[in-house]
Each structure stands twice: as C-alpha cells, then as structure tokens.
UniProtKB/TrEMBL annotation:
Reaction catalysis annotation: [protein]-peptidylproline (omega=180) = [protein]-peptidylproline (omega=0)
Family designation: Belongs to the FKBP-type PPIase family.
Keywords: Isomerase, Rotamase
Pfam families associated with the record: FKBP_C
Protein name stated in the entry: peptidylprolyl isomerase
Residues covered by the PPIase FKBP-type domain: 206-312
SUPFAM superfamilies membership: FKBP-like (SSF54534)
Taxonomic lineage of the native organism: Bacteria, Pseudomonadati, Bacteroidota, Sphingobacteriia, Sphingobacteriales
Domain of life of the organism encoding this protein: Bacteria
E.C. numbers: 5.2.1.8
Length: 331
C-alpha cells in the first residue's frame, strides 16, 4: 500500500514539475502543459501548429483555434538563443505549451525597435498545440521529402475542409434555434425574414442601392454574443467595441451584383424602405476560405440585417467602402 502511495506521489510531482514555468536562453519563459514524449522538432521539419498569441495585457491578438486554420511552416535555423525557432526545439508532436519570447532580446538581436503594438510589452506570449511534425527520413533526398510533405499536407487540408463542410448544416441549425428565427428559404439556400417589404419596385442587377447593414458571424464568442464583423451603424459599432476609426459610417452605396451571391440575392427581395434579415450559407458567401481576418470561418454561414434607403436605377455608381462580407466580387 505504501509503495503505491509513493508511486502516485512521484507521478503527481512529475506532472506538476512539467507544468512549472521554466527559464530559457535570451529571457525566454516557457511552460509545457503536456508532453507526448515524441521526438523534438528540429531544423527542416515541417510543423502544423495551432496557437493563441497574446500581449502582456492578456489580450488575444490572433488565434488559429478561432480561425480553424492551423499554421503549417518549416522549422528554421535559429537566429539567436531564445528566438521563435529556438523555442520550437523544446517541443514534439502532440505537445502543448505556453512560451514567452522576450521582446527586448528580439529587438537587440534584430537591431529593430519593438513592433508598435508591443512597444509597452516585455513579452509576446504564445499558447501552442503541436498538431503534426513531418520529418525527413534518413538518407531521403530533399526533393522526395518535399514531394511527400506536399502530398501529405494537401490531403490533410482536404480532409479538414470536408469535415468543416459536413459540419456547416449543424452550425446553421444551431444558430437558427438559438436566435429563434423562423426563416423562409430560397431555392439557393438563403435563409431570410422580411421585416418590412418596402416599395413594390425592387432593385435589379445593374442598379445601385443605398443601404444600412450589420453583418455578424454565427458562432458565439466567449462572451456568449454573435460578433459584428462589419456595420454601417456607428452607434452600434461603438456599443459593441467594433468601431473603426477612419471608416465611413452611415448608409453606403452598393452595386447590385458586385458582391457575394447571398448578399446580391438578399437585396433583390425587398424594395426601397425594406428591411430584411438573412443568413447566408457559405456556398453563397465565403466558401471554404472564409474571411478569418474578420472572424468568418471556412464553411460558416453569416448573418445580415439590411435596410434599403434608396434605389438608383441604371448603371452602378462607384461604391463607397462596403461591408467586409460584401466587398469581394462574386465567383
């Protein structure tokens, strides 16, 4: 019995030690949360990694977990002890860790000042999960290794995309159930609720509309809300901490037919003075690429509230800056 207790205590101490913050070269700090015991990363390996990047205020600057797009990159030779490439050699496939790269050390060795967004910070912090380490076989030619790696990660990307695509109907259903929206559906798959039909005359391809709009993602954030990715409503943008200095707010001109298909279709369902809610599936929006820079994930529906203020018949007038989700030319 005593022997069992001793073994359990030793295991517990070992686990605790693994999770203690350690010091590395160049002012590096790191904590290994989980070690899978695999061979460590070395120069030339190709790494697939998910990460969360933060500053000293614990503000999230970027997250591949949120964007659902892990980073894939070759491990490079370190430039100095304690740099980004150096710290990767501490981890292997399946490991998870948090590390803090010292920005003063980085500035000293790069002979460059700290990036503006980090000028008041001492560290840039990463919490990482090493998803895959693709290694070169003994005696393998570079060309063979590169070909094998390309084929592997292309197949991996395809499998990931198919999984995300298959999950989209459940995402859309969950959003509709959570928001309690009783929508109608067009033949293309656009979900909509006409709140105010507006005038009998509706915009057509080639017209220009003057609209107010708010676009939201359909995946809840940590605060339990559906985040705005773009809006013409300055008051709403400020209320939800999405205000962008320099962005023109108020009704915007939009050429009908110059946007993603779902947005174009939605505009043609109402007239002047009309209001509509739409949920645009990814095949009518951003598809397998998404727009991660504004929080629109691959194979994810997006939601819009639209109001047509005016319809300008004829050739489209030059558009002022438009909703992020409406800017790309339709495929």
């Amino acid at each position: 019995m005593k022997k069992g207790i001793i073994i359990l205590a030793a295991a517990t101490l070992g686990l605790a030690a693994c999770k203690q913050e350690k010091k590395g070269a160049g002012g590096l700090l790191y904590t290994i949360h989980h070690s899978a015991g695999n061979e460590k990363i070395k120069e030339g390996d190709i790494v697939k990694m998910n990460f969360i990047q933060k500053n000293d205020k614990d503000s999230v600057l970027s997250s591949t977990f949120d964007s659902e797009t892990p980073a894939v990159f070759p491990a490079q030779k370190k430039m100095y002890a304690g740099d980004m490439n150096d710290v990767l050699t501490l981890f292997g496939e399946g490991d998870s860790a948090t590390f803090k790269v010292n920005l003063d050390t980085m500035a000293f060795h790069s002979k460059q000042p700290k990036p503006e967004q980090f000028k008041n910070d001492k560290y840039i912090t990463f919490t990482v999960k090493i998803e895959k380490v693709f290694k070169k076989k003994a005696g393998e030619a570079d060309s063979t290794f590169n070909k094998r790696a390309t084929e592997f990660f292309q197949a991996d990307y395809k499998a990931s995309s198919e999984k995300k695509k298959a999950a989209e109907p459940a995402k859309l259903k969950a959003y509709l159930e959570d928001t309690k929206l009783a929508t109608k559906t067009t033949a293309s798959g656009l979900h909509y609720i006409i709140e105010t039909p507006g005038s009998a005359e509706k915009p057509a391809l080639g017209d220009t509309v003057l609209i107010d709009y708010t676009g939201r993602v359909t995946k809840k954030g940590k605060d339990g809300k559906y985040k705005i990715f773009d809006t013409s409503d300055e008051k709403l943008a400020k209320a939800e901490n999405e205000f962008k200095a320099g962005k023109p707010y108020g009704p915007q001109k939009m050429p009908v037919g110059g946007t993603i298909p779902g947005f174009t279709e939605a505009l043609q369902l109402i007239g002047k003075g009309g209001k509509i809610k739409v949920i645009i599936p990814s095949n009518l929006g951003y598809g397998e690429q998404g727009a991660p820079q504004v929080g629109i994930m691959p194979f994810s529906p997006i939601a819009f509230d639209l109001e047509i203020k005016d319809i300008i018949k004829g050739k489209p007038a030059p558009a002022t800056p438009a909703p992020v989700a409406a800017a790309p030319v339709k495929k």
